[in-house]
Fold this sequence. Notes:
The complex is a heterodimer of chains A (341) and B (697).
Chain A: H1 4-17, H2 21-32, H3 37-44, H4 50-89, H5 108-122, E1 126-127, E2 133-135, H6 136-139, E3 158-159, E4 167-169, H7 175-183, E5 188-197, E6 209-219, H8 224-239, E7 245-250, E8 255-264, E9 281-290, H9 292-297, E10 306-313, H10 314-322, H11 335-338
Parallel strand pairs in A: 1-5
Antiparallel strand pairs in A: 2-4, 3-4, 5-6, 6-10, 7-8, 8-9, 9-10
Helix pairs in contact in A: 1-4, 2-4, 5-10
Chain B: E1 2-4, H1 5-9, H2 25-35, E2 38-44, E3 49-54, H3 60-63, H4 66-77, H5 88-98, E4 106-108, E5 114-123, H6 132-140, H7 148-160, E6 164-168, E7 176-180, E8 186-188, E9 194-196, E10 202-205, E11 210-213, E12 217-218, E13 231-238, H8 240-250, H9 255-262, H10 266-284, E14 287-294, E15 304-307, H11 308-315, H12 321-330, E16 334-339, E17 342-346, H13 357-368, H14 389-403, E18 407-408, E19 414-415, H15 417-422, E20 451-452, H16 457-468, E21 473-484, E22 486-497, H17 503-519, E23 526-530, E24 545-555, E25 558-566, H18 568-573, E26 579-586, H19 587-591, E27 609-618, H20 623-634, E28 638-647, E29 655-664, H21 673-688, E30 694-696
Parallel strand pairs in B: 4-7, 18-21
Antiparallel strand pairs in B: 1-3, 2-3, 5-13, 5-14, 6-13, 7-10, 8-9, 10-11, 11-12, 15-17, 16-17, 19-20, 21-22, 22-26, 23-24, 24-25, 25-26, 27-29, 27-30, 28-29
Helix pairs in contact in B: 4-12, 5-10, 6-7, 7-10, 8-9, 20-21
Amino acid sequence: MENLAEIKKNALNSIEKAADEEALKLLKIEYLGRSGKLTMVLRGLKDMPEVKRKEMGAKANALRQELEGAFQKREKDLRGAVRAVHLQREKIDISLPGTKTPVGHLHPLTKIKNEVEDIFVSLGFEIVEGPEMELEHYAFDALNMPKDHPAREMWDTLWLEPFKDRVLLRPQTSSVQIRYMEKHEPPFRIIAPGRVFRHEATDASHDIQFHQVEGLAVGEDISVANFKHVILSFFRKLFGKDMQIRLRPSFFPFVEPGFEVDISCAQCKGKGCSVCKSSGWLEVMGAGMVHPNVFKAAGYNPKLWRGFAFGVGLDRLAMTKYKIPDIRFFQANDIRFLRQF
Amino acid sequence: MQFSYNWLQSFFPVRLGRKQKLPKPEELARVLTMHSLEVEEIGKNAKDTLFNIDILSNRTHDCLSYMGMAREIHALLGMNLSVPVVKYAALERLIKIKRSARGLRVRVDDKNLCSRYIGVLMSGVKVGPSPAWIKERLGALEQRSINNIVDITNFVMLEMGQPLHAFDADKVDGGIIVRRARDGEKMTTLDDEEVVLNKNILIIADSKAPLAIAGIKGGKKAQITETTKNIILESANFDGPSVRRASRAVGIATDSSLRFAAGLDPNLAGEAMARVMDVVRTVSGGRAVAASDIYPKKLSAVKISLDADKLNAVLGARIDIALAKKILERLGCEVKMKQKKVLLVTPPTRRLDLSIEEDLIEEVGRVYGYENITSRAALIEMALPSRDDAVHYRARMRDLLCGMGFFEAYNYSFVGESDLELIGLPTGRAGASSGKNIFKLVNPTRPEFAFLRPSLMFGLLKNLKENLKHAKDVRFFEMGHVFYKKESDSMALSIASSEWKESKEAFLELKGALIAALESFGVADVWFDDAPESVSEYDGGGNLLHPFQRSEIKIGDKVLGIIGSVHPDTAASYKLKGKAAVCELDFRLLIDFLQKENEYMPVSKFPAVVRDLALLVPRDVRMSEVSDMIENSGGILLKDADLFDVYEGEEFEGRKSFAFHLIFQSDERTLSDSEADKIMENIITALEGNVGWEARR
């Protein structure tokens, strides 16, 4: 019978040299199996005198643990080596294309609308909607444009048959102002996004239908200064912190005073280019303080309430922000165009 | 309007030996744009600079003239304005003394349409070419020089904003009559165009024939020619709306009609007449011998209070009341202190746009400069804005559909007659009257856009067609308003592929997508019912959808919309290169069924037992009949019956095979095989109770 030291030496040596899991398994049987070398030693203990038996027993058990540990470690190493080879064999060309998942895209006008809505909601505005097919009353009369008012010429309107019913396609979203005020009490802040229609010749910057966002804020103490604050916050969130705005006088019958809001040209940063016709500014919004006659038409007392209103063209904003050269692309619905947004 | 820089400069001459120079053109343009009216373009030539200024409709009555623009410059820059001398007193004397003395008779029949008419007879004028200075003024604006008399009327109109006219007095039979034309009455214009008039058109006539269309265009009859010796000058005020309508009716728009249409101050007619008489006398000689001024209701100035507190509250500024007063005075208003902080303002009558306090606030605000108002956050209530369900769910639905591979389309809200005929919707020859269902435009821009779209499907079909030219598979959705009987909020999905062999594939693909979309909003109880063959809300019962591959989409007994494969004839007429299906739902109706609250249901801890069932049934039996029967006979332990195969082989002789996975599961225990087997037996017994139904074991 080999002594323990020899068993240990040979066993550890063989374990270290075992070429694969199969060889290691046989080796394990050779030493730790039912009639393995170390097992035999342990089995022979019972024939030894007590003192010797205790000493040898402790040593043999310690060796058994040591060998078991060595087997485990060697087994793990061998398995790891095999796994590494397998993994290596599974190496792929990571430049292969991924499997296509069909993904759609939002229309750029929805994208810009979402951005605009998110900004105004964060500024405390509520989103409301109104009909596209509108009564003359809401589209004109209640907006301080009675029949024969010269300003009506500003909007070349599409009318529905029969003409005597005076039903039209709204030329601006301002009609929502009156509809909302008739049903709500101030103070409030709303925006009303929607489609509007004009009877006009189409070209790269004009179409017979386009989209606007109307805004209206009414309270006891609303001022031009407040309007400037809201609208500057809006444009800076939409176009970036460097964006400048300017208000210049303009005329819309439903506001007094009325302004045109220009933003600094994003293309040339105000230096002047073809987009802004060398002026450095882009006209993007009509606005003003709500005209007392509009409040009267909606049933409000103009002495108690003041407000500002504005209208901004979504198509124009999208064209500016995404650098789209032709407004008619919006209704073409070519997926090669839509995929870019 | 085009403005010459040099001509504007002439209103600011040397004063007390000091030159008053206008700012450089670019700077002047900036000042005008920021405080008055937008200078849209600056053009230069050798001697002059031309501004193209956008005169808005509320300032046409005063700023569509050099005087008006010069007054604006005066108000903004404070330079001393020098206006042409107007000898109004001389005119007034003539009117008083010589009325009807030398045969100038004027009669105004319709004083509503003509609030003032001044006629002046000048004798002994010499018609000829204009002097250089008038030619230069008109030439700068590319106005053609005709003869001195006509040029002078144009010149004074540009200078003062009042349209003027001159008649050859010797060609006028009797006096001047301002009256409505008779229906069918004809006049030949100065441009040799014959115009047919009607009773809504105001004309200037003599006792025999029309001489001019009031405020719009002169006639041939009393035209000024080389041989003209005596003239009648006209300076009048015609009603804006009626000039606008008449101008549209006869199809003639002129510098004159444009000004009258916007409305003019009748007092201006007097000043302009005095001015034009003076220029005519100086340039072409002649003497005013008779005058008539019919002006029954003199326009007088209004008085408006301006409260400085309100001014500053509206603007959100701190403008001193003295500054406000100075600004208004420079604009030509008479201003008095009414109280300590209140001004009493009398604007000149030429400022027809100034009638309420807010108008004055705008005047002070714009001259002061909006750039000088500091932006400030409004003090607002803490109340949070409420949420509109339609807005919210529409946005979420859009995102979901994009995630499912659908592209969002925005189509025109218009369709043409050929679209509507396709679905058998009656459009009628004469309009929408043949059914109040479809809305027809009075003034469409083109025939393909003559009606409002009753459905989103037309647009989507066109989108599929266009995109199938370069893509194999196309999916589109659109959210928008449709117009059928009323305006409603619609949602439509469409799908097409050039690789599908049968349109059935399109139908099932779209149905699957629709159900998945609805389920993710918690709508599980949607079902598909036979679409009626008669005219329905969405389809029109015509040729849009395949008659045997279409269905109504329902929840309970409510019809939410319709789904179907595209009819092969429609596919052909839209030139679709593939098989396609579309569906459309009423979005507002759908919102009511979207799940707004969710509640947790425990997931069973016990394993499910799965059994397969294959069943032969007669070919006309629907899957839904089979699955209903399985569910009714399966008891509460049957969790799901999932169809995984349909086979219609020849070997089944008129029958077809359905194969289901049946899933059994308890929430309380592990089911045994024998329990599952027993339920299977019950189900099969129930199914085989039908003639021709046979479970394949």
